Amino acid sequence: MSQVYLNGAFMAPEEARISPMDRGFLFADGIYEVIPAFNSVLFRFEEHLQRLERSLREVEIRNPFSPAEWQALCEELIAHNGGGNLSVYLQVTRGAAPRRDHAFPTPPVSPTVFMMTSPIAVPAADSPDTATGGKAITRDDIRWARCDIKSISLLPNSLLRQQAATSGAMETILLRDGFVTEGSASNVFIVLDGTILTPPKNHAILGGITRDLVVELCARHSLPFAETEITEAQLRQAEEIWITSSTREVVPITQLNEAVVGNGKPGAMWKTLARHYIDFKRRLCGLDQE
Ligand code: PMP
Asked: What is the pLDDT of residues 140-199, one digit of tens each?
């Protein structure tokens, strides 16, 4: 039976209760992280924790736990849920205040901490030779100006992702002022004239942990790579398009709106990168070679 964590205790999901006065509920005043574990081993845990710390600092919510405490909680939750390949969702809100007021409560209240796990489906990068890729659509990026903060306020992302779902696509790629920012829940890479490109990290995008790992793997394996703004025209001309996230890893996009990307199959550069990615993951998480 699955277990969640809420404010100091593990329990069945249906037993978890929060107050309607919680600022997460009233204002979406909170921060979250999604950390994958493969073979019960947390993947890029330090990087995820650093991003959590940064997000909390940016919105002035006290981090309730030390890195060691977070790790122990994540590991205990994974064990309670049977281990294996799971993602840990963790959320910290500013807490439940006595009355609804946009300004922070004084004196401060205790943050609310909620954690749960979900199974991770086998990602495309695990099978570079048989992966088929998916469809993405493009839409205007209607989000706020601090997308670098991993806020639980995800209504714009949710509306944008729903448009993908309605169009039979797996992701919505976002454009701001004619430039690619990211996906509704992923970062974007393209291959153009044989070079792998991704937009630079700034307030317009979430600094993805998977994005950073792909950048690291490009450097380590001397793949042609540049961080640069990507125009809508470049996106449409790209030989390959990939989206990255912790639970989907690196997924080839083979159809953009109604147009085929490249030859409509996952590209050669994606296959190369996917092989490096799976090698890296196997070494880190002690997975068996196929
Ligand atoms: N951008 C957005 C808006 C996201 O929601 C996500 C996934 N949480 C990402 C990028 C990818 O980040 P990561 O690789 O750390 O999962």
From this structure: 999 999 999 999 999 999 999 999 999 999 999 999 999 999 999 999 999 999 999 999
Domain architecture of the chain: domains with CATH: 4-119 (3.30.470.10), 126-285 (3.20.10.10)
Q: Whose CA is nearest to atom 3 of ligand 1?
A: 185
How many whole angstroms from 205 Cα to the centroid of ligand 1?
A: 9
In the structure, which protein residues have their CB atom closer than 6 angstroms to any atom of ligand 1?
34, 157, 182, 185-187, 206, 208-211, 244-246
Of 188, 242, 245, 281, the one to substitute when testing ligand 1's pocket (max ligand atoms within 8 A of C-beta) is 245
Mean pLDDT of the chain: 96
Is 201 catalytic? The answer is: no
Nearest-atom number in ligand 1 for the CA of 209 is: 15
Q: Which amino acid, one-letter code, is at 211?
A: R
Q: Which residues of the chain have pLDDT under 50?
A: 289-290
Q: Which of 269, 177, 192, 267 is nearest to 237 (CA)?
A: 192
Q: How far apart are CA 19 and CA 144, in angstroms?
A: 27
Q: What is the tens place of the pLDDT at every residue in 101-126?
A: 999 999 999 999 999 999 998 777 67
Assessment of whether the complete model's pTM goes beyond 0.85: yes
> How far is the centre of ligand 1, averaged over its atoms, from the C-alpha of 79 (Å)?
25
Cβ atoms within 10 A of the Cβ of 280, count? 16
Q: Which residues contact 176 (CB under 8 A, 6 or more apart)?
A: 140, 141, 204
